[in-house]
Specification:
This protein is mostly beta strands. The chain contains 2 helices and 11 strands.
């Protein structure tokens, strides 16, 4: 038969001098049930039990903190003589960390863990090998398989001719410049293409824009030097438009005997004139006395 203790006011049980003393109140029963809220005002709660079950969906850690900045907070797992394991929120880095620390005290008195001071060692997290959602964490074996061997992962490179080349596992993607183009690879992820070599092995230079000039300019007081035969094909029709710049061109040889003509708006009002050959010049000199 149960026995009830009733009081119309607060009921206080006090042993000795209370919280300031050393006496205890011991409840010795198969089950001790508190039907209302339980508030414990003290420094520490110690549970010497085998299993603890909690009905709450969420647990609040660091309850009485009300400051403006974040604080380190989390759960410490007692590992005996080894460094204790920790799952906590690192306020200085604004991220969660899992690892071990010699400074993480299992009784909950840890205030902060000095990451930069070397008191914390990150631990591995084991996850499912194959993710089922795009936002799932993946294992190392899954990433290795996707990058090195999976058929779904293929890097293809195409040149100007649109021909595609597949780059497989263990291959090196190399950018070769050839005779006149130089390539440099540097960190981070930069390929530099330079046309800073002497042009050699060039058979033809053709402009791509209709009626546009191709200009060859020497630097400063230098000159454009042609160190070989300069050929003027005689297949043009009509004279080019004269400008203030002297133009040299080839047509069917006329009185000058060379077939090499020029025009300039400052000479003969821009009319084309033929350069005279040495033979013709000698004949004219004799004829004119």
């Amino acid at each position: 038969m149960s026995k009830n203790i009733l009081s119309s006011k607060d009921l206080n049980l006090k042993a000795g001098t209370g919280a300031a003393g050393t006496n205890q109140i011991k409840l010795d029963a198969k089950t001790t049930r508190v039907t209302g809220d339980l508030v414990i005002d003290g420094d520490q709660v110690t549970e010497n039990v085998t299993n603890t079950t909690i009905e709450d969906q969420f647990m609040e850690i660091n309850r009485n903190y009300s400051g403006a900045g974040a604080q380190d907070s989390g759960i410490v797992f007692n590992q005996g003589t080894q460094d204790n394991a920790v799952f906590y929120f690192d306020a200085s880095s604004n991220e969660f960390r899992i690892g071990t620390s010699a400074r993480a005290i299992a009784d909950g008195s840890t205030v902060a863990i000095d990451i930069d001071g070397g008191s914390f060692t990150l631990a591995n997290i084991k996850v499912a090998t194959t993710p089922t959602d795009a936002n799932h964490a993946v294992s190392k074996s899954y990433v290795d398989g996707e990058v090195s061997g999976a058929a779904a992962f293929t890097l293809k490179v195409a040149g100007d001719d649109s021909t595609q080349v597949a780059v497989g596992s263990g291959n090196t993607l190399q950018f070769s410049g050839g005779a006149n183009i130089h390539t440099d690879a540097s960190e981070a992820d930069t390929i530099t293409v330079n046309l800073n070599e002497r042009l050699t092995g060039i058979d033809s230079i053709t402009g791509s824009t209709s009626n546009a000039d191709i200009t060859i300019s020497a630097n400063s007081t230098g000159s454009v030097v042609i160190d070989d035969v300069l050929t003027f094909p005689a297949n043009r029709s009509g004279d080019p438009t004269a400008t203030a710049i002297t133009k040299i061109f080839a047509q069917t040889p006329s009185g000058g005997g060379t077939g090499l003509f020029f025009n300039n708006t400052s000479v003969s009002s821009g009319a084309a004139g033929e350069l005279i050959s040495k033979k013709k010049a000698t004949a004219l000199a004799i004829a004119l006395g």
